[in-house]
Amino acid sequence: MSIEVKGLNKRFGTFAALDNVSLEVRSGELLALLGPSGSGKTTLLRVIAGLETVDSGQVLFHGADATSQHVRERNVGFVFQHYALFRHMSIFENVAFGLRVRPKQRRPAESEIRRKVMELLGLVQLDWLADRYPQQLSGGQRQRIALARALAVEPQVLLLDEPFGALDAKVRQELRRWLRRLHDEMHITSVFVTHDQDEALEVSDRVVVMNEGRIQQVGTPQEVYDHPVNAFVYQFLGNVNLFHGRMDEGRALIGRGEVPVPTHGESPSGAAVAYARPHDIDVVRPIHGEHGIAARVEHLLAVGPVVRIDLQPDDGAVPIHAEISRELAGSLALVAGDRVLVRPRQVRVFAA
Amino acid sequence: MVDAATPLRRVNAPEASAVNTAVLHAPLAAPRRSLERSTAEPAWVRVLLIATALLFLGVFLFVPLAAVFYEALRKGVPVYFKAVVEPDALSAVWLTLVTAAIAVPLNLVFGVAAAWAIAKFEFRGKNLLLTLIDLPFSVSPVIAGLIYVLVFGLQGWFGGWLAGHDLKVIFAVPGILAATLFVTFPFVARELIPLMQAQGTEEEEAAVVLGASGWQVLWRVTLPNVKWGLLYGVILCNARAMGEFGAVSVVSGHIRGLTNTLPLHVEILYNEYQFAAAFATASLLALLALVTLVLKAWVERRFREHRS
To answer: Distance from B121 to chain A by nearest Cα, in Å?
Structure first.
């Protein structure tokens, strides 16, 4: 089941939640809508579900226009950010709800409902909770029940709104790997919304990066991470340093050093801002004649396998953040106050 | 799915560790107790406050309540029962029950509809509707009664038309019903609106996505979620419907055996110096109030349990 949206526009008052959004979700893929809050990602998900109407544009399910179709008839599974489990129903009844509300001629027999619900509870590995109530469950358990409930109606499409947003870090990581495996087994076309770039990059087949109601880039996690199309995507997908320098024939001149810049089409010349990830920055002891940005070590912090270094450039520019391996840090034997040279190994320059 | 099991079991690990945290928190209990002590008032202040409250309750609530039953039974049980089963008294009881039996369900339906509209939807004039719902609380019941006299009375707007069709509203049961409906208007809606607003619309949305129709959402999700609040509102509404005096007094006309409700009957008997009968009838209303109180306390407890 593929989903296509064409030229969607949605305004809330003067705020444009969706600004001419077009996107294709391929059949069977797991797609992430990634962006900061207010970027329109949740609105887009709700429009696909039919929970929100659009001012203009089209939603197509498997090529057929579903724009005016009622949410009830779209046969989508929706997992809400705060789960929205029915608080007065047992877990069993929550999962059975979608089957029980069917019109009589399509409603399965009681024994069939029981079999189906227990099968789904088995799938999310919570069949021992069938008689409990939502308040008695932990966040991670509620999340999985919400998923089982959504799957009970055998939806053509699964939509998840910040599915792991309200969980603590450890549960969240385990649950997202589990979701990925579940998707690989079921191959149901799925779209999930997240503001967490790690989550999007780790779980999805493709990532849609959104900002201010517009789609910035669509691609595989590797594509968007390695080849961001603009400064927003680059900054949103990880930590970043800014260097003010000059572009000259495919090289960026920063400080007294220069870094080759991979060019896409024409390369800009003149003053430019270069972006570099903390792990793409070399820190060396100053040796006479070597080029680089002279800086002072402000602060060192060892986190897991890397050492994070805050550096203050001598020219008074904004502080630089570098990440180097523990081994390298050990051999450099840096302490706060040391003078060093900073050399970006790899930078990106975006046309203004 | 076999390999998926391992991380999921680990998901449950934080729950197991709750035991450890409980142990860790145990030494904290002692300082917390001293914190309580630091916010408590000195003993004499506490005694004074409690004594004042009890005295107030006693003088203004328990003594009058006891007096009602004492006066009612002063001339003996036979007099008491004679006053209660006397035809005019029975007719007043009947009219009161009929009024409540019609007014409460009507306001139940209205209250649910209004609360649903206000809590779950955005529309123009929402604040106006909220203000209108509160109107019966802010207007004196006497004025509420007068409004109906002015509109439906013989000299009122529709008076001529009603008289022409031989319909009687004022000084008849329909007028009593209308006045009761007016004063009990806000009870159910006011109880449900904050509850429904706090619950939001996510559960309803989830139900619709799962294929439920509007009726199914109402009966299976919205109403069960507010059932205790609803019952609470109905109890308060019923108590007011049976006990209302002012508005009903204006439109009733005090026709014995026809348009007298219980509160009006009490007043008539009292004005005629039939004190024992007046108090006997009043004791029926007082009993009703006590039953309502017990019901209310029970519902409140269930309500709290349901919420937590």
So the answer is: 13
Q: Tell me the chain B residues in contact with residue A79 when contact means C-beta distances shorter than 8 Å.
A: none
The Cα A216–Cα A19 span in angstroms is 11
Inter-chain CB proximity B211 and A49 less than 8 Å: no
Beta carbons within 10 angstroms of residue B126's beta carbon = 12
Nearest Cα of chain B lies from the Cα of A32 at a distance, in angstroms, of 21
Please judge whether B7 and A171 are an interchain contact, meaning their C-beta atoms are less than 8 angstroms apart: no
Q: Assign residue B10 a region: left if phi > 0, alpha if psi is -120 to 50, beta otherwise?
A: alpha
Note the pTM of the prediction, 2 decimals.
Answer: 0.77
Cβ(B237)–Cβ(B246) below 8 Å: no
Per residue in A77-88, pLDDT tens? 999 988 999 999
Which of A69, A101, A121, A136 would you mutate first to test chain B, the one with the most B CBs within 10 A?
A101
Average pLDDT in the A139-153 region?
92
Distance between CA atoms of A55 and A229, rounded to whole angstroms?
Answer: 28
Residue in chain A lying closest to B211 (CA): A72
Amino acid letter, A130: A
Q: Does the beta carbon of B205 lie under 8 angstroms from any beta carbon of chain A?
A: yes
Q: Name the nearest CA neighbour of B185 among B194, B177, B197.
A: B177
User: Which amino acid belongs to residue A59?
Assistant: V
List, for residues A103-134, the tens digit of each pLDDT value: 999 999 999 999 999 999 998 889 899 999 99
Residue in B6, B9, B209 to test binding to A, most A beta-carbons within 10 Å: B209
Contact A301, A295 (CB under 8 A): no
Residue B197 token pair:
């607003």
- B142, B227 Cβ separation under 8 angstroms: no
Q: Which candidate from B11, B202, B216 shows the least CB-CB separation from A101?
A: B216
DSSP-assigned letter for residue B58? I
Only one residue has tokens 């348009």, namely B259
Over residues A312-330, the pLDDT tens digits come to 888 777 888 999 888 888 8
Cβ neighbours of A84 in B, within 8 Å: 202-203, 205-206
Cα dihedral B30, B35, B41, B42 sign: positive
Distances (CA, A) of A125 to A182, B67, B216: 12, 65, 29
Q: A interface toward B at CB cutoff 8 Å? A: 49, 51, 71-72, 75-78, 80, 82, 84-89, 97-98, 101-102, 123, 125, 138, 140-141, 149-150, 152-153, 168, 170-171, 174-175, 177-178, 181-182, 185
Is the sign of the CA dihedral A306, A307, A312, A314 positive or negative? negative
